[in-house]
Specification:
Shape: globular
Distance between the termini: 37 Å
Order of helices and strands: EEHEHEHEHHHEHEHHHHEEEEE
Helix content: 25-40%
Largest sheet: 9 strands, mixed
Number of helices: 11
Structural class: alpha/beta
Length: 440
C-alpha cells in the first residue's frame, strides 16, 4: 500500500495512562438482569475507564466474565452504539466491554482522508459509556506502532485484492495488521464488527481462522437511518443535495431484494400451475384482459425457464444506480458486485445459496459503501452462522443477544430471517416507500 504519516496522538487527560471519566457511568449492578431494550440506557454503577496505554489496560482487572472488544476509528454514532450494546448483553453484567478508538494510518491510501477523519474522543467516550462500555482504549500511534510504521504486516491475500481492495490497494493489509495488534493488546474472548463493512468482516474472520486467534468474531446487522442510508462517520460530509443522491446506494440494494422476491413468488405460482399458465394467458388475451394476460404470461415464462435470480438482482440494482448517475449532483459508481461471501468472487447466474450484493460509489468527494444479503433458491434471505477453525464468525442476529440489538427501523429488512422454499412464495412484509421508488 502507499504509506501514510502516522496519525496524531489523542489528547491525553492529566493522567494519560488511565484517565477516568467520572461523569459517564456504565454497567449494571451484578445482581440486576440484563435490559432487553437495547435503546434504553444501561443502569450505571461506575465510570468508564479511558486508557491510553497497553500497560494500563493490562493492569485493569478483567472481571469474572468474558471480555468483548468493539474496534472503532472514533467519530462514534448509533451504528457503533449498536455494536457496544450487543457486546454488553453478550458478556452480561460480569463481563467487560472494551471499545478501542484509534485512527489507523495503515489503512489510508494516498489522497484519502486521514487528516480529515473526525477525531471526537470526548464525545466518543460519552457515547461508548452510555451504550454500556466499561473501557475506552484510545492509544496513540506511537503506542500501537512503536518506532514508526511496522516492517512486518498481515497480508489479506486474494480476498484483499477484490472490490474494496482493488479500489484501495493495501487497505485490507492495514486493516488486518491493526486488528491483529489490537486483538493482542486487548486479549478479548469475543470481537464485534458491523456487517456494513462486509468485506472487512470477511477478511478479519478469515485471519482469525487461518492464524488461530482464540476469539469469536461476531457480525452485527447494518444500522440505517430512517431514509435507508447506512450509518457511517462519513455521512457528515454530505451536503443536503449529496445526501439525496447517496440514497441511491440503499435504494439499489432494496430494489434487487424486492425484484428477487417477486421472481421467487412468480416461480412459486408457476410450480403450482404448470403448463396451464400459457393456455390461461392466451385465453385472457383473447378476452381482452390485457393486464391479467400479462400476469399469466409472466407466470408461464417463470415456469418455462431456469431461475434468473442473480441476473435479475443485478439488473434491478443497476437500473437504480443508472438513474442516480443522472442526478445533480451525480452518483459516480465505483462498483456493484454480487459475490460469494466466502471469498468475495463474483457469482454466476446459476449460483445457489447466500450471496452479498455490495456497492461503492462517490457523491461529491465522499465515498460510501453498502451491502445486503440475498439468498438464491434457498427460501429467501436471512442470517447464517459460519464456523472456522481458530476463529468463529457468528451472525449477531442468530445469537442469544442479537434479535433486538438495533431499533426495528434501523436495520435493513433483508437482515431479518425469511421463510420459504422454491415451491413456497417468499413475500416480504409491507415496507415504507424509500428513495427512487425502492422500498426500505
Amino acid at each position: 500500500m502507499t504509506s501514510s504519516p502516522l496519525s496524531p496522538s489523542p489528547e491525553p487527560g492529566p493522567h494519560p495512562e488511565a484517565t477516568p471519566a467520572p461523569e459517564v457511568p456504565v454497567n449494571q449492578e451484578p445482581d440486576q438482569p440484563m435490559d432487553e431494550n437495547p435503546t434504553r440506557p444501561v443502569r450505571p454503577t461506575h465510570p468508564v475507564h479511558l486508557l491510553h496505554t497497553a500497560a494500563a489496560l493490562r493492569e485493569l482487572p478483567r472481571g469474572t466474565g468474558a471480555r468483548a472488544v468493539v474496534m472503532t476509528m472514533g467519530a462514534l454514532h448509533e451504528g457503533h452504539a449498536t455494536l457496544i450494546r450487543a457486546a454488553r448483553r453478550r458478556v452480561g453484567p460480569r463481563g467487560q466491554v472494551v471499545v478501542t478508538v484509534f485512527v489507523n494510518p495503515l489503512q489510508f491510501g494516498a489522497g484519502e482522508d486521514l487528516d480529515r477523519y473526525p477525531r471526537t474522543l470526548d464525545a466518543d467516550t460519552e457515547l461508548a459509556a452510555a451504550a454500556g462500555a466499561d473501557v475506552v482504549f484510545a492509544p496513540s500511534a506511537d503506542e500501537v506502532y512503536p518506532g514508526g510504521e511496522p516492517q512486518i504486516r498481515v497480508a489479506a491475500g486474494p480476498m484483499g485484492t477484490l472490490l474494496e481492495g482493488a479500489s484501495r490497494p493495501g487497505h485490507f493489509d492495514g486493516v488486518l495488521t491493526v486488528v491483529a495488534k489490537l486483538l493482542h493488546l486487548t486479549a478479548p474472548d469475543i470481537a464485534f464488527y458491523g456487517q456494513k463493512d462486509a468485506q472487512q468482516l470477511a477478511v478479519i474472520t478469515r485471519m482469525a481462522a487461518d492464524l488461530n486467534f482464540p476469539v469469536e468474531i461476531v457480525g452485527v446487522p447494518t444500522v440505517r437511518e430512517e431514509d435507508g442510508l447506512a450509518l457511517s462517520s462519513r455521512n457528515r460530509y454530505l451536503s443536503h443535495p449529496e445526501r439525496r443522491t447517496a440514497l441511491a446506494l440503499s435504494a439499489a440494494l432494496f430494489a434487487a431484494r424486492d425484484r428477487l422476491a417477486a421472481e421467487e413468488a412468480l416461480r412459486a405460482r408457476a410450480a403450482s400451475t404448470g403448463h396451464a399458465a400459457q393456455d390461461r394467458a392466451a385465453a385472457l388475451a383473447a378476452l381482452g384482459e390485457d393486464r391479467a394476460a400479462a400476469d399469466a404470461h409472466a407466470v408461464a415464462y417463470a415456469a418455462a425457464g431456469p431461475p434468473h435470480g442473480p441476473s435479475v438482482a443485478r439488473a434491478a440494482a443497476q437500473a437504480v444506480l443508472a438513474d442516480a448517475a443522472r442526478l445533480e449532483p451525480p452518483l459516480a459508481l465505483d462498483y456493484l458486485a454480487l459475490v460469494d461471501p466466502s471469498d468475495f468472487t463474483e457469482i454466476p447466474d446459476t449460483y445457489e445459496g447466500e450471496a452479498i450484493l455490495a456497492v461503492a460509489a462517490r457523491v461529491g468527494t465522499t465515498r460510501l459503501i453498502d451491502n445486503i444479503r440475498l439468498v438464491f433458491r434457498a427460501g429467501g434471505s436471512g442470517p447464517t452462522t459460519a464456523t472456522h477453525q481458530g476463529g468463529t464468525l457468528t451472525d449477531a442476529a442468530t445469537s442469544e443477544m442479537a434479535s433486538s440489538d438495533a431499533a426495528p427501523s434501523a436495520t435493513t429488512p433483508s437482515d431479518a430471517p425469511a421463510s420459504g422454499s422454491p415451491t413456497t412464495p417468499t413475500t416480504p412484509p409491507p415496507t415504507p416507500q424509500g428513495p427512487l421508488g425502492a422500498t426500505r
